[in-house]
Recover the amino acids of this structure.
């Protein structure tokens, strides 16, 4: 019995060429996708830092914060029994009531 009978047939030149092309395409796709992920992970925090620096004070979101003057002590009450569920009653330290009380 001959030993070469159990070996697979030799690939043709075209098959070998296309196999090499597929290998190069897969490797280049993996290379560029890895580079894209690495750049994204590196550049995203840098862009956030630049954006915060452009605003002025990092750590303060001016669209979500605000302040009120010091007008003394007061209590804010809301009741589920009031006519308007979003109504607020403000009771000042001197007993005056303002709002939906």
């Amino acid at each position: 019995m001959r030993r070469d009978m159990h070996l697979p047939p030799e690939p043709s030149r075209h098959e070998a060429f296309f196999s090499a092309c597929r290998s190069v395409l897969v490797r280049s796709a993996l290379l560029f996708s890895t580079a894209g992920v690495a750049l994204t992970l590196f550049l995203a925090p840098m862009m956030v830092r630049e954006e915060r620096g452009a605003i002025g004070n990092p750590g303060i979101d001016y669209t979500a914060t605000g302040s009120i003057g010091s007008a003394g002590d007061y209590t804010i009450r809301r009741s589920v029994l009031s006519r308007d569920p979003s109504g607020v009653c403000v009771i000042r330290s001197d007993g005056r009531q303002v709002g939906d009380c």
In short: The beta strands are 74-77, 89-92, 97-99. The mean pLDDT is 76. The CA atoms of residues 14 and 63 lie 64 Å apart. The first strand starts at residue 74 and ends at 77.
